[in-house]
Design a protein that fits this description.
Blueprint: H1 8-38, H2 42-75, H3 87-106, H4 111-141, H5 147-175
Helix pairs in contact: 1-2, 1-4, 1-5, 2-3, 3-4, 4-5
Length: about 180
């Protein structure tokens, strides 16, 4: 079986795991890091529930992305190089939208929080999906399952979350 011919369920499973795991682990681990540095549980009390909501939203986004990627891969399987660059922008969008929504729920009147939430989540989503898409596609094009790549990146999501926060902080400081 080549890429795009596998059952839709395997693509949906893989990307739902990636979205849910990244959505939960990336913000939740930030709360634990803040707790370790300042000793208060306030960040954990906020970011772990945010991570849970982001995880659910990530699963839903993963279902959509997995379905779309399978369809596009099936359609363009003769030209796989065309497929390689789509991971970063799709990941950025699928990360930024939930980040914006969650930030607006947490602080509905703060545009700055919404921009920060969308930016950090967009950076994390772009990095995760951008970094996982090429090896995942390579595995699928060879007829192998892609879930090991997905699982590895899901476990790496806390590091990606921290990199996204650092990247956002650097950009924010450069602009102000």
């Amino acid at each position: 079986m080549t890429a795009g011919e596998e059952p839709l369920a395997s693509w949906v499973r893989d990307f739902a795991l990636l979205g849910g795991g990244t959505g939960f682990f990336a913000p939740s681990i930030l709360g634990l890091v803040i707790w370790m540095t300042d000793g208060t549980f306030q960040a954990v009390e906020v970011l772990v529930p945010v991570g849970a909501v982001c995880g659910v939203i990530g699963v839903l986004a993963g279902v959509i992305v997995g379905t779309a990627f399978r369809a596009v891969t099936r359609w363009l399987r003769e030209w796989p190089l065309v497929l390689f660059p789509i991971g970063f922008p799709v990941g950025g969008i699928s990360g930024a939208v939930p980040g914006w929504i969650i930030a607006r729920v947490i602080e509905p009147y703060s545009m700055q929080t919404a921009i920060a939430g969308a930016s950090i989540s967009g950076i994390a989503g772009g990095l995760v999906l951008g970094l996982v898409w090429v090896p995942y596609l390579a595995m699928r094009l060879r007829g192998r399952p892609g879930w090991p790549v997905i699982l590895g990146m899901t476990l790496f999501a806390p590091v990606i979350g921290m990199l996204a926060v650092i990247g956002f902080g650097v950009m924010w400081e450069a602009l102000h």
